[in-house]
Amino acid sequence: MDYAEYLQHDATALARRVARGDVAASELLALALDRNAAVHGRINAVCRLLEPQARAQLDRAMGGALAGVPFLIKDGVQDYAGVPTSFGSRSMLGYVPTEHASVVRRYLDAGLVVFGKTNLPEFALKAVTDPQLYGRSSNPWDLGRTPGGSSGGAAAAVAAGIVPMAAGNDGGGSIRIPAACCGLFGLRPSRGRVSSGPAIGEVWFGASSEGVLSRSVRDSALALDILQGAEPGDPFDIAPPSGSYADLMRRDPGKLRIGFSTASPIGTEVHPEAVAAVQRTAKLLRGLGHEVEEAAPRVDGTALAESFLHIYFGQVPAMVARGRALGAGTGDVELTGRLLATLGGAMSGARLTAQLAKWNTFSRDLARFHARYDMLLTPTLAAPPLRHGEGDPPAAEQFVLDLLQRSGLLGILARLGLLEGTVNRIARDSLRFVPFTQLANLTGTPAMSVPLHWTADGLPLGVQFVGRFGAEDRLLQLAHQLEGAAPWFDRLSPLAREGLGQTGKVPASVDA
After folding, report:
1. Which is catalytic among the residues 89, 137, 138, 150?
2. Do 401 and 335 touch, CB atoms closer than 8 A?
3. Which residue out of 174, 220, 307, 430 is catalytically annotated?
4. Is the pLDDT at 504 greater than 80, yes or no?
5. Could you give the dihedral angle defined by the CA atoms of residues 487, 490, 491 and 492, in that order, rounded to the nearest 10 degrees?
6. Could you confirm whether 220 is annotated as catalytic?
7. Which residues contact 171 (CB under 8 A, 6 or more apart)?
8. Which residue, of 3, 127, 401, 464, has the greatest Cβ tally within 10 A?
9. Averaged over 259-263, what is the pLDDT?
């Protein structure tokens, strides 16, 4: 098998070819490693290779639904026994788990050949992937732009043709945002659908979910079959699906009632291309027989954004403390992490509790919307993928905040309540590019980004669907229908096409 044929198949098809003996798992691993070597210097997607571990897998008898398919996990939450889980931070390099995370064990049990870990921003805090530890990742569609975050390395790896599917997780849009930036499909499951154990009960108070970024809907459905279901000791176990997602996905979704909105929930600007993406999708949906009208849940977007920010305030000080316990120094944490740790340390437990209590209000507001509409359609991003550095705070502001933090004045001002305006402005600025995704995280509902739009400049710009709690099957059914009506599998990034030789074309897809 050559690279062109490799690109022709999704993970499901590759696994079938391995099972039939048409191609060896070692041959697929070699293709993935060669492809990573060819593009690494330009996209920096894979931050740690696990080639010895992958080859050891090949030496053992493999079974499972995706046996022999090369795969990448994210260097945050997804612990691989004996290998550091850095969370994109120098401060966490001393954390070497002694057992696999449940999701990693399930990937391995499914036969996926894990040969590396993907890049992410420090502590998975950003919608761009630019850690000081490993360096910035770039978008295969335009190397001068971000692949999104926090699963940006995973998205870049799939869009560059290294693997057909890669693992991510989503605490504020971290699967959907990079999927939208890189022309991929990304589904964030409902809270509790996939275990975060055993090292963690609920990531970010339950706002985060595990999933994959893929080129095909059926790969994501099969991955969810592999991942779904509670582990012993999990906080709770939600109702299982009525069948396998791979089978449920193929059913007709029926006539759906879908409400759509292009207005930013925090009142910020939405790029005309993002508006056009939703309008184009609404037209496509109507053509498929669905009832589509402009409507949005009555959720206070500003309050939700503020509550989301308090996830950081509650979590980052604990992460920094973990690093210090491992021997990390102050300089091993980036400026953003240090600032958030200081602000979080100055916040009272009562305030954090009050913010977390608001999640109930958001969930009930969204449930009232879903009593009338099956799904909510919005842009995934408020603008096309950002150019590198475009969303960074001004250098002068970073200097002042760094000085305040190092002097101890930042904590004093925070405790006195004198930074409210500054914090709110920073929060608004940081979310203006991605104001649509946090609703699903705080309410625990499933949501997906579907690659249905490309800008006039040829950049991908996905659209988001938010479904009812536990209704991943309906989202997958709609995605499968949309995939048939407006196919995207063979729409490859310039970097992926570059490996195809003079024609730059991949042969017609084969459903092997």
Report:
1. 150
2. yes
3. 174
4. no
5. 150
6. no
7. 124, 150, 203, 204, 207, 208, 209, 311, 441
8. 464
9. 98
Contact 366, 297 (CB under 8 A): yes
Q: Decide the pairing of beta strands 291-294 and 209-214.
A: unpaired
Per-residue pLDDT, averaged over 29-44, amounts to 98
What single-letter amino acid sits at 322?
A: R
Residue among 74, 216, 220, 430 flagged as catalytic = 74
- Of the candidates 34, 28, 73, 67, the one whose C-alpha atom is nearest the C-alpha of residue 50 is 73
Name which residue leads in pLDDT, 423 or 315. 315
Looking at residues 175-186, what average pLDDT do you find?
98
For residue 20, what is the enclosing H or E element? helix 11-20
Q: Is the pLDDT of residue 423 over 80?
A: no
181 phi/psi in degrees, rounded to 5: -70, -30
- The reply to whether 244 belongs to the active site is no
Q: What is the pLDDT of residue 14?
A: 98
Q: Which secondary structure element, helix H or strand E, spans residue 166, and what is its range?
A: strand 165-170
Provide, rounded to the nearest whole percent, the portion of the chain with pLDDT above 70.
91
What's the start-to-end Cα distance of the chain, in Å? 14
C-alpha distances (whole Å) from 204 to each of 83, 171, 357, 502 are 23, 7, 14, 47
Q: Kindly state the average pLDDT of the residues 153-162.
A: 98
Q: Mapping DSSP to helix (H, G, I), strand (E, B) and coil, where does residue 275 land?
A: helix
